[in-house]
């Protein structure tokens, strides 16, 4: 093996040099650069130390993106170098005439390639840790253990990716094709999965695209995407999507180990029977080439065909034609890569027919299936529980939403909001199906005013789980919400105050309900006080149904600002995108807390924004707008009069009353702006007409 | 003892080796001759354990070769164009071969290099084709294996080295158990070295015999017979493989021992008769012509 490494000695040398630049040099440069980000102050040294520790552990940690990229390059490079002799008959004759069994030879070559990358990596990482840690005084046992764990993880990841690349090299007979098949193995599973999923989302209107394991399961289809999945856990969207959604580090490690064992087993078996005479051929077997061709051309052709047909105004059925053309072209390209002869592009016509038939079958299934998929609804006795979530939030509770597409852990959310109250859920589902079949409302429609997108999970009695996404009107959704909120457990599960982590709140501002009642007051609360306030608010709102909220006008608004900076290190914020929560008259605990803070929120007349004696002199201007017109009122007298003749619309009213206007109030002293939805009477409208702003 | 029994190997639809049966005894120098594409290299690659046969068996001292390191350790295969790693020198090749073949004779190898005037530190990439062949042979001989398989190895050597190598092979056979198997087109060379010759044609073996037996079983005679009728009688009574008449001189190649052939000829009372020595080349051409490989018709 040492001799083998010696023959390809340039490889470890190259990796060593690259590793030196990637680890010790990069780390020291970044350590020095930390100085530029820290202002000299009382905690200068401490902050610098914290940031440097963070830099050290992140650059040498298991989520270092540079190492992830380096693994890909090193794995392909090592696999190619150690097995490229299969490209040459002379070399194959030499290696295969040696007094080794095929298995022994495979093991020697595999291990030589592995050590060629691993030894330089270990040397450089350790050098980087001890050099940077020693210079900046960051050496610690915990830090070393953390780096060691990352090193072990990367070794496993490299081994798995390298194993797959070796398998690719054994299947290919040529160097270039070996590299292409390596990329095929590493990328095909995830890419194909996401391509098919995209086509399904595009064609199955009720397919719930963000609600189940299908969000991340495609990442498990290749060792490199498993590695990227692990890397992605550091990001807000991926982390929330997967960390509590079923993917654990143990699972990632298990999958990597599985890929390593599988690729090792397959490669060992393959190498034992690999005919030496295939040296220099494009592939170990023409059948394998045909299989790869079929596997690539069907999804790629269908996807490109879809892109082409969607980007033009041609009828949707032309998708089939475009796809067949694409399949034909892709087949030709792959055949050319195999044979390097243009005359051979139709040589394997049987596989070409299989590709064309496969593409047609896929499209036909996808185009015909929605009729049953989109209108499917289980019978009530088949369902053990249901859950409904929507990214519209609950308008009566505050201005917040679940950011379903990025950030929210939807699986956990579905578990929390489970209900057995079938009537409102089924009503919602039926409304969604009717909306789709009668109005043609699709998942894009929810972006329109008056519609909301809801996702329903049916947990069936046989243990399976089905998701459906519907577009329903705001009124339908509110009706379902009101019915569901009669259940105390549901309220506790759904109401946002129960999901706020007080440690993620940096500041709290309390403001009166009326926009003309003055701007908000920043509460100078300690962490414990913020926790107490949130607990009070949660306890208060949990006692209220949506129906009871709709019968009341809130007294005030709590504005919560989350923190995203903790000890100088960026933290991920909550999966709930919360900005404001309403305080209703029944929220006795919250009101008492605010009273202690010197803030008194009182009942106001909901028929008008201000009473006749409200001082509006602090207001500099009113900006009023509808979808088509806008107005700016600047006269103090008109401002006062206008406000007296406007009823304040709660956000919930927006769904039921379309006569609202959007109001921005700008204050003279603070230049603060507050917003509200209002319903002006005739007098107010008359004033408004004087201030129309022409476009 | 190397035994090939009903050995067959096909590359897709090309039958490279077909039902070859032959035996190579210890102490024999086996020459493998054949037409282009006859399957000589394939046969050697099969014996070396590089290729796996489709059918039949290859036994070396009673053991199969395929995936058998103990047997493969007794074989050194020198292919037509050998593999030398990039930037390798004779010295680094020696280091590599010392690992592969534990009984490698280092001193002898360095001695060969010195005598052939090959610098041990010069990069092999800069060597001529002949020098590479020399180096391959030196490595193969010094590997000290029982079986040395040479594929066209002698074809690029200059006459001096060729003679030297012949001598080395002869002395090796005397000194230790050594079985060289040499595939070549250079029949003249093989004739000098080999005791036993296998004649391959279209993947099948036409004959495999000791060279002396091969020559003894075939006679080349020049004669002049006055009576044309006698000439026809002669041809009918002999197993004539080839006959050619120029003027009054008839040249025939016929199967049979010297005595058998001469007895028949004498009965025709020839005016003149002379037994000519048969070269391996003539045997090769004659046998392949009989098998349908008519070289002369290609040239017409």
Describe the structure.
- The complex is a heterodimer of chains A (695) and B (300).
- By secondary structure, chain A is α+β, with helices and mostly antiparallel strands.
- Helices cover 55% and strands 14% of the residues of chain A.
- In chain A, the strands form 4 sheets. In chain A, strands 2-11-8-6-7 form a 5-stranded antiparallel β-sheet. A 5-stranded antiparallel β-sheet of chain A has the order 13-12-15-16-14. In chain A, strands 3-1-4-5 form a 4-stranded antiparallel β-sheet.
- In chain A, strand 9 and strand 10 form a beta hairpin.
- In chain A, helix 6 packs antiparallel against helix 11.
- The longest helix of chain A is centred in the first third of the chain and has 35 residues.
- Chain B is of the alpha/beta class and 300 residues long.
- Chain B has 2 domains: 210 residues, P-loop containing nucleotide triphosphate hydrolases (Rossmann fold, 3-Layer(aba) Sandwich); 83 residues, Alpha-Beta Plaits.
- Helices cover 38% and strands 29% of the residues of chain B.
- In chain B, strands 6-7-8-3-9-10 form a 6-stranded mixed β-sheet, with helices on both faces.
- In chain B, a hairpin with a 2-residue loop joins strand 4 and strand 5.
- Chain B is elongated.
- Chains A and B meet through helix 5 of A and helix 2 and helix 3 of B.
Top keywords for this entry?
heterodimer; A: 695 residues; alpha+beta; five-stranded antiparallel beta sheet; 25 helices; 16 strands; 14% strand; B: alpha/beta; Rossmann fold; six-stranded mixed beta sheet; four-stranded antiparallel beta sheet; 12 helices
Helicity range of chain A: 40-55%
What is the CATH architecture assignment of the largest domain in chain B? 3-Layer(aba) Sandwich
Listing every helix as H and every strand as E from the N terminus to the C terminus, the arrangement of chain B reads EEEHEEHEHHHEHEHEEHEHEEHEHH
Which regions of chain A contain 5 or more consecutive residues with pLDDT less than 50?
A: 240-245, 403-408, 565-576
Order of strands across the widest beta sheet of chain A? 2-11-8-6-7
Q: From the structure provided, what is the oligomeric state, counting identical versus distinct chains?
A: heterodimer
Overall spatial form of chain A: globular
- For the termini of chain B, the CA-CA separation is 44 Å
Q: Over the alpha carbons, how many angstroms does the gyration radius of chain B reach?
A: 22 Å
């Amino acid at each position: 093996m040492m001799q083998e490494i010696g023959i390809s000695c340039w490889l470890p040398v190259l990796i060593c040099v690259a590793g030196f630049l990637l680890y010790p040099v990069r780390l020291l440069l970044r350590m020095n650069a930390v100085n530029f980000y820290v202002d000299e102050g009382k905690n200068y040294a401490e902050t610098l130390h914290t940031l440097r520790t963070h830099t050290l552990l992140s650059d040498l940690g298991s989520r270092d993106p540079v190492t992830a990229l380096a693994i890909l390059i090193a794995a392909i490079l090592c696999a190619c170098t150690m097995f490229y002799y299969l490209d040459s008959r002379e070399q194959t004759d030499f290696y295969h005439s040696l007094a080794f069994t095929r298995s022994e030879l495979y093991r020697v070559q595999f291990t030589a390639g592995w050590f060629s990358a691993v030894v330089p990596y270990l040397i450089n990482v350790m050098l980087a840790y001890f050099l940077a840690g020693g210079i900046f005084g960051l050496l610690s046992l915990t830090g070393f253990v953390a780096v060691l764990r990352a090193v072990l993880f990367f070794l496993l990841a490299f081994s798995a990716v390298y194993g797959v690349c070796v398998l690719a090299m054994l299947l290919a007979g040529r160097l270039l094709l070996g590299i292409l098949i390596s990329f095929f193995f590493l990328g095909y599973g995830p890419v194909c999965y996401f391509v098919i999923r995209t086509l399904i989302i595009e064609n199955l209107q009720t397919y719930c695209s963000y609600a189940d394991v299908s969000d991340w399961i495609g990442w498990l289809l290749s060792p490199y995407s498993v590695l990227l999945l692990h890397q992605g856990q550091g990001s807000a969207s991926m982390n929330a999507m997967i960390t509590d959604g079923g993917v654990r580090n143990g699972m990632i490690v298990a999958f990597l180990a599985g890929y390593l064992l599988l690729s090792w087993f397959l490669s060992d078996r393959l190498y034992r029977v690999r005919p030496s005479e295939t040296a220099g051929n494009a592939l170990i077997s023409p059948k394998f080439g045909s299989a790869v061709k079929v596997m690539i051309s069907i999804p790629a052709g269908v996807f490109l065909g879809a892109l082409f047909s969607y980007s033009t105004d041609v009828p949707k059925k032309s998708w089939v034609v475009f796809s067949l053309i694409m399949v034909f072209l892709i087949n030709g390209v792959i055949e050319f890569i195999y044979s390097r002869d243009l005359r051979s592009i139709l040589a394997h016509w049987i596989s070409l027919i299989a590709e064309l038939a496969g593409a047609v079958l896929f499209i036909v299934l996808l185009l015909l299936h929605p009729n049953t998929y989109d209108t499917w609804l289980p019978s009530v006795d088949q369902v053990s529980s249901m859950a409904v979530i929507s990214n519209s939030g609950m308008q009566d509770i505050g201005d917040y939403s679940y950011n379903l597409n990025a950030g929210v852990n939807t699986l956990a959310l579905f578990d929390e909001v489970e209900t057995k109250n079938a009537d409102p859920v089924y009503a919602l589902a039926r409304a969604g199906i009717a909306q789709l079949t009668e109005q043609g409302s699709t998942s894009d429609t929810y972006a329109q005013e008056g519609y909301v997108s809801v996702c329903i999970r049916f947990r069936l009695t046989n243990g399976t789980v089905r998701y459906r996404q519907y577009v329903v009107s705001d009124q339908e959704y509110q009706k379902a919400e009101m019915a569901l909120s009669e259940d105390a457990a549901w309220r506790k599960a759904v109401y946002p105050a129960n999901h706020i982590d007080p440690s993620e709140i940096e500041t709290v501002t309390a403001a009166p309900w009326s926009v003309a009642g003055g701007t908000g007051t920043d509460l100078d609360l300690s962490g414990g006080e913020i926790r107490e306030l949130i607990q009070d608010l949660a306890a208060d709102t949990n006692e209220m149904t949506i129906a009871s909220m709709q019968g009341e006008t809130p007294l005030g608004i709590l504005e919560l600002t989350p923190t995203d900076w903790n000890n100088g290190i960026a933290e991920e914020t909550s999966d709930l995108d919360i900005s404001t929560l309403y305080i209703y008259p029944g929220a006795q605990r919250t009101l008492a807390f605010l009273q202690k803070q010197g803030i008194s929120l009182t009942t106001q007349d909901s028929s008008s924004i201000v009473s006749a004696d409200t001082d509006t002199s602090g207001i500099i201007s009113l900006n009023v707008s509808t979808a088509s017109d806008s107005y700016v009122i600047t006269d103090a007298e008109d401002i006062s009069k206008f406000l007296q003749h406007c009823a304040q619309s709660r956000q919930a009213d927006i769904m039921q009353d379309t006569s609202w206007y959007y109001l921005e109030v700008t204050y003279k002293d603070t230049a603060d702006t507050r917003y509200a939805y209002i319903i002006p009477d005739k007098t107010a409208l008359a004033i408004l007409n004087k201030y129309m702003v022409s476009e | 003892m190397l035994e090939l029994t009903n050995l067959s190997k096909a590359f897709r639809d090309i039958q490279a080796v077909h039902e070859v049966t032959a035996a190579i005894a210890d102490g024999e120098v086996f020459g493998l001759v054949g037409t282009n594409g006859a399957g000589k290299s394939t046969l050697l690659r099969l014996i070396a354990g590089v290729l796996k046969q489709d059918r039949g068996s290859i036994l070396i001292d009673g053991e199969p070769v395929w995936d058998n390191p103990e047997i493969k350790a007794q074989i050194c295969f020198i292919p037509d164009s050998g593999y030398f790693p990039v930037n390798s020198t004779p010295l680094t090749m020696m280091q590599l071969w010392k690992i592969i073949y534990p009984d490698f004779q280092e001193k002898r190898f360095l001695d060969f290099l010195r005598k052939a005037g090959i610098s041990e530190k010069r990069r092999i990439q800069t060597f001529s084709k002949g020098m590479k062949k020399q180096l391959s042979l030196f490595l193969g001989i010094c590997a000290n294996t029982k079986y040395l398989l040479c594929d066209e190895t002698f074809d690029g050597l200059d006459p001096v080295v060729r003679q030297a190598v012949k001598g080395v092979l002869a002395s090796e056979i005397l000194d230790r158990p050594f079985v060289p198997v040499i595939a070549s087109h250079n029949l003249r060379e093989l004739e000098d070295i080999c005791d036993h010759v296998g004649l391959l044609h279209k993947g099948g073996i036409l004959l495999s015999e000791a060279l002396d037996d091969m020559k003894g079983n075939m006679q080349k005679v020049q004669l002049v017979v006055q009576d044309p009728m006698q000439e026809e009688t002669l041809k009918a009574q002999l197993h004539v493989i080839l006959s050619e008449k120029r003027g009054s001189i008839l040249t025939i190649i016929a199967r049979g021992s010297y005595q058998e052939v001469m007895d028949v000829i004498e009965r025709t009372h020839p005016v003149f008769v002379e037994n000519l020595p048969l070269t391996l080349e003539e045997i090769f051409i004659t046998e392949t012509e009989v098998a349908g490989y008519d070289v002369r018709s290609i040239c017409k």
